[in-house]
Automatic annotation (TrEMBL):
Enzyme Commission number, as recorded: 5.6.2.4
Domain Helicase ATP-binding: 26-194
Family: Belongs to the helicase family. RecQ subfamily.
PROSITE patterns xref list: HELICASE_ATP_BIND_1, HELICASE_CTER
Pfam families: DEAD (PF00270), Helicase_C (PF00271), RecQ_Zn_bind (PF16124)
Principal EC category: isomerase
GO-annotated molecular function: helicase activity
PANTHER family: ATP-DEPENDENT DNA HELICASE Q1 (PTHR13710:SF105), DNA HELICASE RECQ FAMILY MEMBER (PTHR13710)
InterPro entries: DEAD/DEAH_box_helicase_dom, DNA_helicase_ATP-dep_RecQ, Helicase_ATP-bd, Helicase_C-like, P-loop_NTPase, RecQ_Zn-bd, WH-like_DNA-bd_sf
Organism, scientific name: Sphingobacterium suaedae
Key words of the record: ATP-binding, DNA-binding, Helicase, Hydrolase, Isomerase, Metal-binding, Nucleotide-binding
Descriptive protein name: ATP-dependent DNA helicase RecQ
Length: 633
């Protein structure tokens, strides 16, 4: 089997060997075992399910919460000649229907599903008829309520086991505490608990956590000193622009990135950074998933992350080429206070959650008893502004509404316009003769797209406008006209998050919210915030502290983090002070004040500490008020 897996790896990815643990995970899956793999960011998790699925008949179902990453992987697989498809929120029922049919009757090898699609009876029923060879669960920590990024739709994954009891699960994540590792296996119903994990130690990373009042100045000095490319993470969109502009003003090639930018702009900025046309990208945590740039020399955090799991993932984007790199976290006391305030705001009262639900029903004008299965573009800023709500507790309220099965909210992702003819070729020809104004557009679509009678195709209205020498508005009006005449289906592009109601609307007073679950999540989150504080305040090695959090018993200091460097500096200073004390006392005995005043290195506290150390070791002795040298050195 080893030769076959390597053949597939070489054929489609061009690699001669696997990365660490990939082969072991693949073999476990091929043996039909439920498997959990903890691989670091950039460790090649996708290979672990793509290779074994290609070796077997049937289709691999991939569950991922990251729609943008799903779309990238589907595109990359198609470029390799591997038939793949993705289904996520924002697609029409007809699109979903066609995609699922192709998975049952076509040659699709990979079906990527956003977890919220598993709420759909249609999707689950169609999955039953597919010849599935593997269920791959990406970002598997999302299924655990003890995880840092719990996603309620992930609880639907247990239903996959009911559809195909004998098909193995491969759960993949970069970060999980021992408690989360157990919970993932419990929630997915693992029969055979097969866990592969790489150490969380990254030998080439010099972690630093610096209390710094002048963050901008320190950031600039570090960027100039370290060289190479890097990422600066901040908390909000406004900061990305301000910090990027500050760097540009000080001669650093920089740009900003956040989820509020349109898809084309995000791609342009990302590509410029990947190609080293931009040296520094200043971003929110929306940046980085699925990006594998090897020569990142620094990842700077100007705001405290919400958890050590999130920090480890973001910091791990540095130094993937194995060379020395610097993840640096800068903070002030106000940052610690703000983190706690955000934590408190993230757990609104039950009555607040009920009010958010009530306002959503009014916002979308949904009648009581109606709305099940209906989805909408969702602008949370506009929603909160209209009902004078704070954004953070409102976002948290949506999470609890998701958990209890009332609705689901997908991430913001760009979905291009889609088009499909709903009549036969012969009927379309008759229509073209009768409706001449549509003829040029129809001919253009037929020239550019095969299969447009069978499935939805993405189209670009701007390109059509250019070729037809007309306006964007005129093209969209023609497309909408074809839809109105039931000649075609036209779904305009969107880059908004999608909100879908899973149940008919009820009176908010009768809305059930799981209060014990809310209390448990609050306890978990409080533990994660306190872990951040403990990491900042630790006196031991940063790498050891991170590994301990993830359940690794490591005793060897990294020798490269800020605390190790400080300790090394202190040890060298103490050695020099010992030599200086010896030379001073060999000249003459001295009182403690005379001895301290005679020394040139360190502060008084350090000098007294070394004097006590030498006294304990009996290298010096005290006779009356005078210290004398007592031993050969």
């Amino acid at each position: 089997m080893e030769n076959k897996t390597l053949t597939i790896l070489k054929q489609y990815w061009g690699y001669d060997t696997f990365r660490p643990l990939q082969e072991e995970v693949i073999n476990s899956v091929l043996d039909g075992r439920d498997t959990l793999a903890l691989l670091p960011t950039g460790g090649g998790k996708s290979i672990c399910f793509q290779v074994p699925s290609l070796l077997q008949a049937g289709i691999c179902i991939v569950i991922s919460p990251l729609v943008a990453l799903m779309k990238d992987q589907v595109e990359n697989l198609r470029k390799k000649g591997i038939e793949s498809v993705a289904i996520f929120s924002g697609m029409s029922p007809r699109e979903v229907d066609i995609a699922l049919d192709n998975c049952i009757y076509g040659r699709i090898k990979f079906l990527y599903l956003a977890p919220e699609r598993l709420y759909s009876d249609l999707v689950r029923e169609r999955l039953r008829y597919m010849k599935v060879n593997l269920f791959a669960i990406d970002e598997a920590h999302c299924i655990s309520q003890w995880g840092y990024d719990f996603r309620p739709p992930y609880l639907q994954l247990a239903k996959l086991r009911e559809l195909h009891p004998s098909v193995p699960f491969l759960a993949l994540t970069a970060t999980a505490t021992p408690e989360v590792v157990e919970d993932i296996q419990d929630k997915l119903g693992f029969v055979d608990r097969q866990v592969f994990r790489m150490s969380f130690r990254r030998e080439n990373l010099a972690y630093m956590a610096l209390k710094e009042e002048d963050k901008m100045g320190r950031m600039l000095r570090m960027i100039h000193k370290l060289g190479g490319s890097g990422v600066v993470y901040v908390r909000n969109r406004r900061e990305t622009q301000e910090v990027a502009q500050y760097l540009v003003n000080h001669g650093v090639s920089a740009d900003f990135y956040h989820a509020g930018l349109d898809n084309q702009t995000r791609s342009q900025k990302q590509d410029a950074w990947m190609d080293n046309r931009i040296r520094v990208i200043v971003a929110t945590n929306a940046f980085g998933m699925g990006i594998d740039k090897s020569d990142v020399r620094f990842v700077l955090h100007l705001d405290l992350p919400d958890s050590l799991e999130a920090y480890y993932q973001e910091a791990g984007r540095a130094g993937r080429d194995g060379k020395k790199a610097f993840p640096v976290l800068m903070y002030q006391q106000s940052d610690r206070d703000k983190l706690w305030e955000n934590f408190e705001a993230s757990f609104p009262e039950i009555s607040y959650i009920q009010q958010v639900y009530h306002h959503l029903g009014n916002y979308y004008q949904i009648a009581y008893g109606a709305g099940k299965g209906v989805s909408f573009d969702f602008d949370i800023v506009d929603f909160c502004k209209r009902y004078q709500l704070d954004i953070l507790p409102s976002m948290s309220a949506l999470k609890f509404l998701e958990r209890d099965g009332w609705l689901t909210v997908s991430e913001a992702v760009f979905i291009p316009s889609r088009f499909k003819f709903e009549i036969s070729y012969q009927e379309l020809y008759k229509f073209q003769v009768q409706a001449a104004k549509y003829d040029p557009l129809i001919k253009l679509i037929l020239r550019h797209y095969g299969g447009v009678f069978d499935y939805y195709v993405p189209l670009n209205e701007f390109e059509f406008a250019k070729k037809l020498k007309t306006s964007y508005t005129a093209v969209t009006e023609l497309l909408l006209g074809l839809q109105k005449l039931q000649v075609a289906s036209y779904l305009p592009k969107t880059d908004a998050p999608q909100l879908e109601f899973l149940q008919p609307r009820v009176d908010y007073k009768n809305l059930f919210i799981d209060a014990p679950f809310r209390a448990e999540r609050k306890r978990v989150k409080e533990t994660q915030i306190k872990a951040i504080y403990a990491y900042l305040d630790t006196k031991r090695c940063r790498s050891i502290a991170l590994q301990a959090y993830f359940g690794e018993d490591e005793q060897t200091a990294c020798g490269a983090c800020d605390l190790c460097l400080l300790r090394q500096h202190q040890e060298k200073l103490e050695e020099k002070l010992m030599v200086e004390i010896k030379n001073s006392l060999l000249q003459s005995a001295k009182t403690v004040k005379e001895l301290v005043d005679d020394l040139t290195m360190g502060d008084d506290e350090t000098r007294l500490y070394v004097i006590r150390l030498l006294l304990d070791k009996e290298k010096i002795c005290l006779e009356g008020d005078l210290y004398r040298w007592n031993a050969p050195f």
